[in-house]
Design brief:
Layout (H helix, E strand, L loop, with lengths): L2 E7 L9 H10 L4 E6 L14 H14 L3 E6 L9 H10 L4 E4 L1 H4 L5 H14 L3 E5 L7 H9 L5 E6 L4 H17 L3 E5 L5 H11 L4 E2 L11 H15 L2 H15 L2 H5 L1
Parallel strand pairs: 1-2, 2-3, 3-4, 4-5, 5-6, 6-7, 7-8
Length: 263
């Protein structure tokens, strides 16, 4: 089973992919499941819909009910009047959200433990992983990400590279490596925008169990499909079979609790 943990959809934000487009990518690339959040909840860049948290997540749920290869991720807008921890908990307990996502740059907030702590504690309580959209913005600097994750050491936190530079990706890899060594946080690194060789090096540095397949679907628009057909083929050659299985689906299956659901 191949799972892409990093996808986005949208209906009114310019450049956001429609659910059908993401589903086409999944079908052609033999990806069984793509985790998607609704970018209409973002307030930047210019032109973003800045949609109310509840409305954005309901729209995401509706899209995923229509397109079977998509799994909904709850977009959190901390600090906004439309964002409430009890609403998050209720949604995760009653609806098929498989994870939650934070996007500090897209919603213009500092990822301070005082602001985000109640959300992270709630996710730990309901056993859902957290995805964090990471770019070169200082709001997602590695030190800040580590402070958040270390404050909730039982919560799986997946760092999703949303256009992060090679330098920032190297910093994130070093951060995950250090947390593995110190065993003070459950940090994972996705593969978005990385080459097969870079993914192989990440597996060597932190272990296959801390790397998860994610593509930022469909960031490359029409080129996304051929790019990731080639990437998956290259990964089969670059990684050992057991490593390939872990990275492309096994780790996500475990983090999302899909193995427990099957049992």
């Amino acid at each position: 089973m191949i799972i892409d943990v990093h996808g986005h959809i949208g209906f009114t934000t310019p450049g956001a992919a429609r659910p059908a487009h993401v589903t086409t990518y999944a079908g052609v690339c033999n990806v069984d499941l793509v985790l998607v959040s609704n970018r209409d909840a973002a307030s930047s860049p210019s032109g973003a819909a800045d949609l109310d948290e509840a409305a954005a997540n309901v729209a995401c749920l509706d899209a995923c009910r229509t397109y079977g290869r998509l799994a909904p991720v709850y977009w959190i807008r901390p600090g906004r009047t439309d964002s409430h921890v009890p609403a998050l908990v209720g949604a995760l307990q009653t609806e098929p959200f498989v994870a939650a996502v934070l996007a500090p740059a897209e919603n213009d907030y500092e990822p301070e433990p005082r602001l985000l702590g109640p959300y992270l504690a709630a996710l730990t309580l309901v056993s859902r992983p957290l995805l964090v959209c990471v770019g070169d913005d200082e709001r997602t600097a590695p030190a800040k990400l580590h402070a958040l994750a270390a404050g909730h050491p039982r919560l799986p936190v997946v760092l999703c590279a949303c256009g992060a530079s090679l330098g920032r990706r190297a910093e994130l890899l070093d951060l995950v490596r250090r947390t593995v060594h110190r065993d003070d946080a459950r940090l994972y690194l996705d593969t978005s925008h990385a080459t097969a060789d870079a993914i192989r090096q990440a597996v060597y540095a932190v272990g296959a169990e801390r790397v998860v397949f994610g593509t930022h679907a469909v960031a490359y628009d029409d080129a996304h499909i051929p790019r990731h057909i080639a990437l998956l083929d290259e990964l089969r050659q670059a990684l050992l079979p057991a490593e390939y299985a872990q990275v492309t689906g096994g780790n996500a299956t475990r983090l999302l609790g899909l193995d427990r659901a099957a049992g």
